[in-house]
Amino acid sequence: MISTVEHPELTVCKLGTNLDNLLEQPEGQRILSCIQCGTCAGTCPYGDYMEYSPRKIIAMLRRGMIDEVLQSDSMLKCVACYSCMIKCPRGIKLSDVLLPLVKEQTLIRAKEMPAELQHSLQNTLRYGNPMGESSRKRAAWTAKSKAPVPIMSEIKRPVDVLWFVECYTSFYNRGQDNSCAVARLFNALGIDFAILGNEEKCAGDCGQLTWESGLFETLTDYNMVIFKKYKFNKIVTGDPHAFNAFRIRYPMYGFDYEVWHTTPFLAEYVDKLKPKLKKPLNLTVTYHDSCCIGRRAGFYDEGRTLLKAIPGVKIVEMVHNRMNSICCGGGGGGMWLDTYFKQKDMERLSERRVKEAIATGADVLAVSCPYEIYRFEDALKTIPHEKPMVVRDVVELLAESLVEE
Amino acid sequence: MPTTPIKNEPVKIGYYICHCGTNIASVIDVDAVAKYISKLPNVVVSRNYKYMCSDPGQKLIEDDIAKYQLNRIVVAACSPLLHETTFRNATRKGGLNPFYFQMVNVREHNAWVHSDREQATRKAIELSRAAVERVSLHKPLEIRKLPINPNVLIVGGGIAGIHAALVLANAGKHVYLVEREPTIGGHMAKFDKTFPTLDCAACVLTPKMAAVGKHPNITLWTYSDVVKVDGYVGNYKVTVRRRPRYVIEELCTGCLECIDACIYKEPKFSDEFNLGLGKRKPVYIPFAQAIPSIATIDANTCIELKTGKCKKTCVDACGDRKAIDFKQKEELKEITVGAVIITTGFKTFDARRILYYGYGVYPNVITSLEAERLLNAAGPTSGEFLTRDGRKPKQIAIIHCVGSRDENTNKWCSRVCCLYSLKLAHLIHERTEAEVFNFYIDMRTPGKSMEEFYNRVAEEGVNFVRGRVADIYPDPSDGSTGHLVVQAEDTLLGKILKVPVDMVVLSVGLEPDPASENIRKMFNLSCGSEGWFLERHPKLAPVSSFNEGIFIAGCCQGPKDIPDTVAQAGAAAAEAFSIIDLGNIEIEPNTAYIIESECSGCKSCIPLCPYSAISFDTEKHKSVINEALCKGCGTCVAACPSGSIVQNLFEDEEIISEINGLLEPIEVK
Amino acid sequence: MENENKNKSGNGNWSPRIVAFFCNWCTYTAADLAGVSRMKYAPNTRIIRLMCSGRVDPQFILEALARGADGVLIGGCHPGDCHYVEGNYKCLRRFRMLKRMLVDMGIEDKRVRLEWISAAEGEKVKRVVNEMVAEIQELGPLGIPKKFEEWDKEIEDLKHEIENKEKEEVAKQ
Ligand SMILES: Cc1cc2nc3c(=O)[nH]c(=O)nc-3n(C[C@H](O)[C@H](O)[C@H](O)COP(=O)(O)OP(=O)(O)OC[C@H]3O[C@@H](n4cnc5c(N)ncnc54)[C@H](O)[C@@H]3O)c2cc1C
Ligand code: FES
Question: How many angstroms separate the Cα of B36 from the Cα of each of B125, B374, B408?
């Protein structure tokens, strides 16, 4: 259902679209139809802090005054949360096309790139992951996994599922917990899968801010070559950003595999999984809809369906949920702009989100994205709360309840 | 009138080319044309004349018919769309069947668009020769006359249906008014005041409703639906289902004693008329001035109807009147009508579809229609406008364009929301003294007195914010008190506003009622991609449908306010009147028929007909065309693989002879 | 005016003959409008009025070409505007099929054309007719009747040949 082969409309735009030719493209014609209603600015989590809100950017673009916008750092504050895009009454592809283009040009013109961001992008280019870890250690986490994790280059046979692990889930401690959980669930469900191991490199979605040029294309080219090396039926990834990149950007470069994120993928197996979830957890859980699988892809129920399958789990909702969910602030490069945002005296979105989670009185803040674990756990350290709260990926909770025969 | 053709009678053609003053003659050598035509086979008379359409011109044709025993006439002049009828009449007056005539367009299609005399003359000759060849094959035809049933059916008893019904009934025509709810009145009956005049809706509406209820020429069937439609203009056969209301209409006096006496001492069930804001009993009338003023018993909640074990205190209260009948069954009524007016109105947008406005989640987010009920003195709160928890609101937001102008929901502008939002702002401000914020995208107030109304409301101190609301959520600082924050960009200031309010009114748009899809199918109406019924022509036939004798009026055709609705209803009534008052209608005999012996029974024509005029005779294994339904487009004729369908006036042979006549090489003399 | 003159010049004295089938409700009315507005266009079309473009039988088109037309123009209401709901779609479908066949038969694509022209588009009648005349002028005569004659002659010759052969054989025996 997510295959871009069947849904060519999922791809964002024609390759080679830039700010100069945008208004001549179909996406640009939508921009010409903008009624300046301000929904985008009103819903933007950082709308308060932007000199040029998306609405103003459109107005400036249409007046031929976009250069003025590029002098401002407004677009660095865009966390690519898709909130403006999903609510836009004119269906303008803001987060897909316009805003990344503006962001890219802003960065090109910036006198100084925020150091943390620059560092991460350089790492990604050099090592294939933003944290600058050795690419030879990418598969090292598998040693931690109790369940077997086959590697494509070793098993030398076609598989059903190519599991694209991604960076945070390979290198970070808490991310590795996530990966181990997925490995257990895949094994328990008898899924025929393998990973790319050390051959894998970052999918590059958060180089979304540079998607049109250099870095993203380097990564795309690299990964496409690796994909062609092996035979598999579909790609599954636990990282919503990789999922997003494969789903809407890679097709511009000829990618046409069926692609899933683990949450909706596992939700397809819920009937098979449920009898194996024997250990009751007795927890009140609130579920955070991540931007790329929620708003951008429309998977709202899947995470909740999986949580409901766990005995003893009670779901409570935050004020902003589903399409109205508040971003953790990590998208579009936000992951590496925390220091910059702090300098600008901006509220951390992860903190704003965590406050809502705390207000529900839940024990667990459940997520579907490895960025969020890291961001929310961090935010919980600074936001005072009486009742203890932990952050868990849905797959971690499933694995915790799983009892293998 | 029509002369029977004499078999093998030799064809004798009279040909006339008109000068049209100098309009034609200055470009075309009419003399040369007439001369050329005179030499063609079967042409007995060939003339040119200054004004063929004048009386002497027509007389010329009549006289020639008598003098030369002509039996075919060709006139080359202006467009047939202008004078075909004139010359057909002249042909008829001369004693011939009027369809023994063919017209050639040498003015609009020739003299007026060309200036080269030689070329134009040549073209006139070729066109005339084609007509001469064609007319020889013409058959005598009869203008069809169909009798018309003088009654009219109106479906939907909103203000549109009510107005149309009264116009026709006052003109002495009999009207059947079918309404699905227990009362007529539609949306208007729910409002407190109406923009821009702020006159009370009930004061203008209820007298009209009462007039419908007691009009001798109106048969009012409420709680009823149309279930079947057959026939054609002048003769529609319609079946109406009357659902049981378990009260005999003729016997009920509208005293409402049964309601008081109901075993349920207090109203307990959600009241549909008040959109669930109030409660009603199983036996109820929707509102005090409902028409007909008759109680209805709801089978889903009445104990007797559900279990058969009620004390039936209502029956006791009714006493000798004996109006309550628990055994009432649904009734099917068959009626015949000459014309139909569809006035099924609209439905309001379901605000739940825009998740971020929190309708259905936050009790103090209400729709505009609910606001109308709360403001209505006869409404569930007797006109008190309070929050759900009974507080008097201090700040209120009214959000325009909810479910309008939005690619994600409905793309169109609903046209009345800006204005009724202004009305609500005024009324709420007046009743509660609350501070009101109207969030709008563009303020649309076209129409007579509308801008003045906007001006007035602005002067009253309502806050207008230009920006579409992006988020509504409980005030995080005091979640418990039910305050909500409305977040939007004030696009004129370029600032994000977070306005704390006690209540939010969502000005929901108007959309086609999905239930009317059924009506659309039964009456074979067209609709645009949005689902509004399509008028035949947006400017020149705004209340006609594509089906003869079926008209549309009011909001089922598209969003509009009450004045426009009433204007359309009046127009539809006049159009219907102009059909039924004639007694019969004349129809161009260009219908198609099937030569039974040649039909192979392949059925390929059947799905092609947009009017379902073709059916299949399973016994004979042949297709049959119902001439009364056929509109004469000829699509089936062109598609018939065995060539067994013939279209009168446009037979294959006639057209081919025309082609032939056009192309025969010209001998230049 | 200009167009008219152009049509006479070039390619000897030959100028194309085009048969047009216009629906009564839109395109025929548009042609009337062109007249009322005194627009000038090439005099090469001969319009046949039908109630709807859905009435256009492919046979009519073939017939016109066979009898010497150099091109055929069909005019109907715009999609969604057909007076008979969807006669124009039916026409379009047939037109597409016929067109493929004609091209296979070596009849140039530009000779047969379908246009949606609403009752308000007198200007479009003028434009389309002028364009088409210019294009066909370029292509030259189609001359099917002449070809028919040639083919008839060929067949006739063939018949003679066979007959002669048979005769010869009979003679041999
Ligand atoms: C909140 C709100 C406030 C408004 N305020 C104003 C105002 O102040 N001034 C103004 O000019 N306009 C106002 N309008 C617009 C006004 O409501 C419409 O112009 C008017 O109601 C249209 O009347 P109608 O008869 O076409 O449709 P409706 O009022 O919708 O009536 C249609 C009727 O047909 C019946 N029906 C539907 N389907 C069937 C069926 N299949 N069989 C039988 N019966 C059927 C329905 O039950 C209903 O009784 C407002 C609209 C809204 C939503
Ligand atoms: S009536 Fe014009 S195309 Fe059908």
Answer: 7, 83, 67
Please indicate, yes or no, whether residues A301 and A195 belong to a single structural domain of this protein.
no
**C26 CB less than 6 Å from ligand 2?**
yes
Of A38, A319, A322, the CB nearest to B468: A38
Chains that touch C (3 or more CB pairs under 8 A): B
Q: What is the overall mean pLDDT for chain B? A: 94
Residue where a domain stops, chosen among A216, A237, A267: A267
Structural domain includes residue A3: no
Q: pLDDT tens across C4-56, in order? A: 433 444 446 789 999 999 999 889 989 998 998 899 999 999 999 999 999 99
- Partner residue opposite B113 with nearest CB, options C40, C64, C83: C40
The yes/no answer to whether this complex scores an ipTM above 0.85 is yes
At C126-155, the pLDDT tens digits run 999 999 999 999 999 998 888 888 888 888
Question: Do A256 and A128 sit in the same domain of this protein?
Answer: yes
Q: Do A134 and A258 belong together in one domain? A: yes
Q: How far is residue B14 from each of residues B58, B92, B434, B536, B658, measured CA to CA in Å?
A: 12, 14, 84, 39, 17
Cα(A257) to ligand 1 centroid in Å equals 51
List CB contacts (< 8 A) between B494 and chain A.
41, 53, 56
Structure confidence at residue B4 (pLDDT): 47
Q: Enumerate neighbours of A (3 or more CB pairs within 8 A).
A: B
**Quick check: bond before B610 cis, omega within 30?**
no
- Reduced to 3 states (helix: H, G, I; strand: E, B; else coil), residue A84 is helix
Candidate from C21, C28, C52 with most ligand 2 atoms within 8 A of CB, to mutate: C52
pTM: 0.79
For chain B, domains (ranges, CATH) are 13-141 (3.40.50), 257-321 (no CATH), 347-511 (3.50.50.60), 589-648 (3.30.70.20)
**Assigned token pair, C147:** 């070809």
- Residue of C57, C77, C97, C91 whose CA lies nearest to B650: C57
B394-410 residue pLDDT tens: 999 999 999 999 999 99
Domain boundary among A232, A267, A302: A267
Q: Ligand 1 center to residue A394 CA distance, Å? A: 48
Cβ(A237)–Cβ(A205) under 8 Å? Answer: no
State the ligand closest to the CA atom of B631: 2
Instruction: Look at residue A1 and tell me if it is in a domain.
Output: no
**A220: containing domain:** 115-267
DSSP state of A23: G
